[in-house]
Amino acid sequence: MSAALRSARLRLDDVLRVGGSGLRARPTRVVLSALGIAIGIAAMIAVVGISSSGRAELDRQLDQLGTDLLTVSPGDDLFGGTATLPDEAPDMIARIGPVTDVSTVGTVDAKVYRSDLIPKAASGGIQTYAADLDLLETVAGTVASGSWLNDATSRYPVVVLGATTAQQLGINRAGADVQVLIGDEWFTVGGILNPVPLAPELDTGALIGETVAEHLLGFNGHPTTVYTRSDEASVEAVRGVLAATANPAAPNEVRVSRPSDALAARAAADQAFTGLLVGLGSVALLVGGVGVANTMVISVLERRAEIGLRRALGATRRHIRAQFLTESLLLALVGGASGVVLGVGATAAYALIQGWPTLVPVWASLGGLIATVAVGVVAGLYPAARAARMSPTEALAAP
Hints:
Elements lengths: L1 H7 L3 H13 L2 H39 L3 E6 L14 H6 L4 E10 L3 E2 L13 E5 L3 H4 L4 E4 L11 E4 L1 H7 L9 E4 L2 E9 L11 E5 H8 L7 E6 L4 H12 L7 E4 L1 H44 L1 H9 L4 H38 L7 H28 L2 H6 L2
Helix pairs in contact: 2-11, 3-9, 3-11, 3-12, 9-11, 9-12, 11-12
């Protein structure tokens, strides 16, 4: 009796070997069934990984650019029109104790053209700014070609183009032979900026020195945006007094913003969108699970003779149930493992193209594998139970 019981036992390695042999006998069907799960897992991991890599890049940018930049610009007056900042606003802001840097730009009423043959109405929305010489350092901007304005070039018709402006005008380099028309005056392109994340309005602008703006283009000297840097620990305190300091007579007509908040808000929006895409990936995983269940049901119907023979040779219902449940689990794991590899690979490729650090959270990979185990178990329960319920005589008599 004890010998018979021992012979009826099925070790774990035996269960895995028997389950694996069932999959190896139908490789095409296994690949197609596992593909559904692989797509679902890969989609979820890629979405989470790309989102995490994007946030890591944003954190890197904020660490590099700083979160202590505040901008002061005119708001609306009592009549709904655009207010103006007092000429003394930059000097008054500079007197705030924690403020370390103050730079300004002023809007110049002059449009920018690549050629004098372009109709005056087709300005392309490019704005001309009279800029302080220390503006680039304050906004953490960099030059892609040429150089930034200095004491000499700010007195002459020399312009530095924003990144978007240069693309729009079809200019890819700075040089003495490259000129643009600003108002009715020709300006030499002395530099082209890289995109400025903390001051995106500069990307679509053309920046010139205040002196030449006054002499050639009639600039009135009014600052339209003031950029300030403060001690990191005092940013909120400075933010609270900036409006009243810039325009004591009408602080309600001053708009104060923190550009890094916009970047953080964009990250939050991306995170919400990531949740939606993870949900779509979950739907794909569910469809893959249905495919595994369908494959296992068909496998049970096709292998009734095998089930009957094994039962006649002493296999119990528990053995049959374990065999088909193991097949379902292995099938799901094949798809899940493939999906993890595909998801990590897609994340790495996208991050490489974007120049981001590659970051795939460990919980995402582990969660994907756990999800495939759950799918494999759920998808295999009914086919395994159906196979176990077959009697030896019924299975052997099946065509």
